[in-house]
Amino acid sequence: LDNEQYTLQSLEPSNVNISLKGRARDIDRVNLNNGDSRIVIDLSGLEEGEHTGIPIKPVGFPDGVEVEIYPPAANVVLEEIQGKEVPVYVELIGEPAAGLVAGDPMSDPGRVRVMLPENELDQVVAVKTTLDISGASEGVAVERKVMAIDASGQEIKNAVLSPSVVRVEVPVTSPFITVPLPVRLVGEPAPGYSVSSVEQDVKEVTLFGSEDVIQQYEFYGGLEVDISGISETANYTLNIPVENPLQRVH
After folding, report:
1. Are 20 and 66 in contact, with CB atoms under 8 Å apart?
2. Cα–Cα dist 84/148, whole Å
3. pTM (two decimals)
4. Are 247 and 209 in contact (CB under 8 A)?
5. Averaged over 171-183, what is the pLDDT?
6. Burial, 4: exposed, middle or buried (Cβ in 10 Å; 0-12, 13-18, 19+)?
7. Are the beta carbons of 34 and 58 closer than 8 angstroms?
8. How far apart are the first and last CA of the chain?
9. How far is residue 232's CA from residue 167's CA, in Å, rounded to a whole number?
């Protein structure tokens, strides 16, 4: 059976009777437990649908042993495997080290192809993996196995995933907040001149620090540009200081 393209939906009969005839010493050599002697149904080359009267054949039986199988044929139903791409959902377990926060997890790739029989494919809503970040003091990047899940979060066990392993990255940083960055103009331009417009390429910054500290900021101020006496367009580069007790300003 081409397991990548079809799945075995039903097989009848599920059991058969085998009659062996031959000399006792030859029959004693038959071992059905290790697979040396077995019965097979060849499904190669069959397409989707119902197939009847497929011969059940003995394979690997010792010479001198006559094998009779009843019933001698089987009926099977094959269903074509369908596929669709679904998003990867990463469930985080635990909390990072004290004073740190975990950002949104990212997976590469962000979508995985799920292959299932057509009547089961609609049950798949996502593929999922879990990642334990308990006590993490820095970003986490690992490879994780994924599984297909339905709307209730239950695993669909017979799904084939491509790829079955994704790379998951989770940033772990200090708490942060993004606020406006106002710049104040001080002084006056040269007589007869005025400021017609101001263009600021950095209009907001991200503040990193403890939660109680960063929540005090509605904006990050203190930057000034002295325009005293200017009579033409001017460009200024300003350093953004890190106020205590902030950890970082970006």
Report:
1. yes
2. 11
3. 0.53
4. yes
5. 90
6. exposed
7. no
8. 58
9. 53
